[in-house]
Design brief:
Layout lengths: L7 E7 L6 H11 L20 H6 L6 E7 L2 E7 L7 H10 L2 E7 L6 H12 L4 E6 L8 H12 L3 E3 L1 E6 L2 E7 L4 E5 L6 E4 L6 H17 L2 H8 L6 H14 L3 E5 L8 H11 L9 E5 L4 E4 L8 E10 L3 E10 L2 E2 L3 E4 L4 E4 L3 E5 L2 E5 L1 E2 L4 E5 L9 E3 L5 E3 L9 E7 L5 H11 L7 E5 L4 E6 L2 H15 L3 E4 L6 E4 L3 E9 L6 E11 L5 E5 L11 H11 L13 E9 L7 H15 L5 E15 L3 H10 L3 E7 L5 E9 L6 H8 L5 E11 L2 H14 L1
Parallel strand pairs: 1-3, 1-4, 4-5, 5-11, 6-11, 32-33
Antiparallel strand pairs: 2-3, 7-8, 8-9, 9-10, 12-13, 12-24, 14-15, 14-23, 15-22, 16-21, 17-18, 17-23, 19-20, 19-22, 25-27, 25-28, 26-27, 29-34, 30-31, 31-33, 34-36, 34-37, 35-36
Amino acid sequence: MNLTTDKIRNITVMGHGGVGKTAFVEAALYNAGVIDRMGRSNEGNTVTDFDAEEIRRGVSVSTSVAWCEWKKHKINFIDTPGDFDFLGEQLLGMYAGDTALIVMSAKDGLSVGAEKAVRNAAGVNIPVSFFINRMDEPNANFEKTLGDLRDVYGQRVLPLALPILEGEKMTGLVDVMGGKAYAFSGKRGEMKAIDLPSDLEALVEEYGEQIKEQIAENDEHLMEKYFEGEAFTPDEESEGMRKAITAGSIMPVLVGSAQENLGISFALDLVTRYMPTPVDGHPVTAVKEDGEKILLHSESEGPLAAFIFKTFVDPFVGRISLFRVFSGTFKDEGTIYNVNQEKEERLIGLNFQNGKKQQPTEVVVAGDIGAIAKLSETKTLDTLTTKAAPLRIEGPEMPVPCLTLAIAPVNKGEEEKIMQGLVRLQDEDVTFTIVNDAETRQFRLSGLGEVQLDVISARLKSKFGVEAVLSEPRIAYRETIRKKVKVQGRHKKQTGGHGQYGDVWIVFEPGTEEGLEFAEEVFGGSVPKNYFPAVEKGLQEAIVEGVLAGYPIVNLKATLVDGSYHDVDSNELSFKLAARLAYRAGLPQADPVLLEPIDKLYVHIPDDFLGDIMGDLNKRRGRIHGINADSIPGFQVVEAEAPRAEIAKYATDLKSMTQGRGWFTVEFVRYEQVPQNIADRIIAAAQSEE
């Protein structure tokens, strides 16, 4: 097809887990003739759930793209996972879209996932629409679900379709704008015109009038026609609706059953007719070579700028990069410039991606979504542009990891394979981090939740053949002293010929610097100056292991004040060993104590959960420093400090306590002394491991 930007619709499909997002896309592809049979997520045979983990789990865990032609338009569906652990996938999926279609269950009403989807869509500045799904199931209640939406988001929530029910079964729908009724009549969503049910006439008129009023408010010409009682032309209606949806003054509601393919074709009609085009909204900020920031509006005439919003690895094709063209026209011209990596990449070919299947193309116009295979340097969040006029698109702010687990191979000796595998998996998921913690001798895997980390572990096995286990990480405790002591360290060894002799007196006391603060106050040459560095080195090596539980010593001042030497037997090694002996003798006398890391938390929660969260933080030895109103209406931000040992699984616990509505950020602030009863347990555990 001869495609232009105005004929493209980018729909990001979102919602709570299990509400039928993937089923909606599957029905759309079936009705458009892309597939011959509708697959099901729980059977592992859908177009957009093709990842091995998605097939195994029966749910989406990655963002994927599928597309179809409908009424001379191209509709790109960006299917996102519903689990909150995959927020990064959702944000990037929304960034590539122009409208968020939030799928909801007619049985469950306004879910947490829908609430979050609306909030996140506002964060990336794309408008919201709703599809009330599962109308085929018992206890489905369209009116209640619509009422829930209007209670929360106001009168701008307006249905473009109303269900026609016979008993509890949806047999057709009403086109609110057209004022016409249709009955379902075919396997691919066909409908036939019927008389408008009398019990819906008043609602159709009421909602139709509200929609026209909202349309008129976004256009002066249409406002005049509305007040004069003139009807809008079809073109005026379509353009006015797109403006109103883009502005957020209308949040349209559609209805049907994706599983039974009811109302999906009508939804596609409305998508092509009313949903914003790439030009209508969702401009993104780009940075020019000289640092100037500009807005890109998906115009074909502009300089080329394509944003990588997803990377995945196909077992046969290799690495595939999905991109949205925000400016210019992307052509298969041999090479492309990656401005983030400052490198040119060779193009193997351009494609349109339908799940894991590819359709070659020579051009991807502004506003469209394409794919490139085997880009060696390009990563998610990078911008592909031209070297002559480079632009770097500022992507969405990615969520910060809040849960850390230790990951280790089941089979010893595969530590390197784990690290290599995780680094490669970061190409597919930019929201997790991996650190090789030398202090705790663990790989620390940090992400947004246990499900995400479990998926990563599973992918290590399926893609790289490394079986791994996840566990709570060791806490990086510290030790320090509270008293001043003066001790001697003497190393003397005679083995025939030259021996070893080093003798030092060292004053140990609490220091102000984080590590070791070394000083000398030696008089009379009792210890020659050339041995001072050896003494310091001996202490530096010693403080790695404390005297209580073997944790590193911090805030220690050591002053060399006296000693003795031997003309023949003294050397650097002797004085280094003497310093270690002084350390081991002195620190147990200096009132050593155990320190634990203290983290600062900013906990975002709905008002209703404030008391529970504060009580829970107190149980975790937390200290509340403040409670402030969040930027989100109905939410509070609790500012607190808590020991890291007490909040190891807080990401999971907070979701449970707030029904998935709460989230938090965390940062390290300092070390503090561990209460004695807890310190005794930690010391005993450390000693038992020796």
